[in-house]
Please model this.
Amino acid sequence: MILWFGKKKKQDEAKAAGAAMDAPELSADEMAARDAEIAAKEAEKAEIERVVAEANKAWEDRQAREASEAASESARLEEEARKADAARAEALARADAEEAKRLEAEADAARRAREEREIARAKAAAELKILEDRREAVRLREEREAAARAALEAEANDPGFVAKLGSGLARSSSRLGSGLAAFNKRKLDDETLEDLEDLLITSDLGAAVARRVTKNLSKERFDREITENEIKQALATEIEDVLAPREKIVDFSDGPRPRVVLFVGVNGSGKTTTIGKIASKLKDQGAKALLVAGDTFRAAAIEQLTVWGDRAGIPVMSKPTGADAAGLVYEAIERAREEDLDLVLVDTAGRLQNKAELMAELAKVVRVIRKMDPEAPHDVILVLDATVGQNALSQVEAFRHTAGVTGLVMTKLDGTAKGGVLVAIAEAHDLPIHFIGVGEGADDLRPFSAHAFSQALVGAID
Model:
């Protein structure tokens, strides 16, 4: 602030001193000059006061402005600080939230991982248990199958049965054996091999088997002298090689339930008797079976199957003579399902393979069965009569085409000279041979053994 009060004090003192002096006499001009001077001084004073007032006001305005600006700046800075504090707080809160979210996500991930590990562990344990159960089931099944195979092989190679087989095939082996006797001590040259091939063909072994046997014999023994026993053993070995791939023990306990087994064949082949024998064996082994008298054309067939059923304690389903066989089979399968039976063994009418209408009726039975179960019949077993010789080959071809044959049974090998046809069938058709029969009794139907059969056929029982 500008200080004027010292100057004003001196002025006042001068005025007081002048007032004490005697006022001189002044002229009019002097008076006017004095007044003008006084007026000028007053004006100057007023101007000075105005300038001072303006300067003071300007200073005050500047001070007020600076104070306002300072207040505004302070408010701005305070607002910025508040905003910065808020931003920092928000950032911290956001960071805390994000951290909390991250930690929660990590906790969730850890929890999920733990749950997944637990699920994986439980799944692995379950899979391991299933695998162990399967292994145990496979082991038990293999044990059962091995025991069953051993039992069936023992049954097939039972010395008593083998002897009976040899006796049953006596006419076949005698016919072949008497022919082989002529080769004793003969040199195995081209002429001898040709004669041997003719003998094998006339013994119903078939041309293909005869050529195979003589070809293999010539590789090892050509131009060498051979005894009757040597040629029998060599022939038995060759025949066994043909038959062994067809040797198959059928396990009726395997597969779906009820297992539908269809027996087909020509008149007089022994179908009904074969079914009765098989049913009797299965009943002894604990199977729950149903016999179906599907041969509705012959009353004797129905009666015969009923006798076997009564003897074995197995129910038999039948209808009056002339009834629809396909309808009977349909009802039998429904009954087996309702009663939870293991097997449905179906006898069918005997028919010649060259009778188209009868073969068409058999095809209808198969179609009806497949409507109930697309996989059925699960077995179609063709029963062949050994006494028909080479005609059995055409039977296999016809029934295989019509009914989808899955396996063979050859009956009546006892007392026939045509047992060698089984070898020809095995060479011509890739079908398993399940059973052979050498008599009327239940024990006369046994599982097929390639070794026992080949030895018995050539009369070289070992």
Q: What stands out?
A: The chain is about 65% helix and 10% strand. Strands lie at 186-187, 225-226, 259-264, 289-294, 316-317, 343-348, 379-385, 407-411, 433-437, 445-447. The CA atoms of residues 297 and 322 lie 5 Å apart.
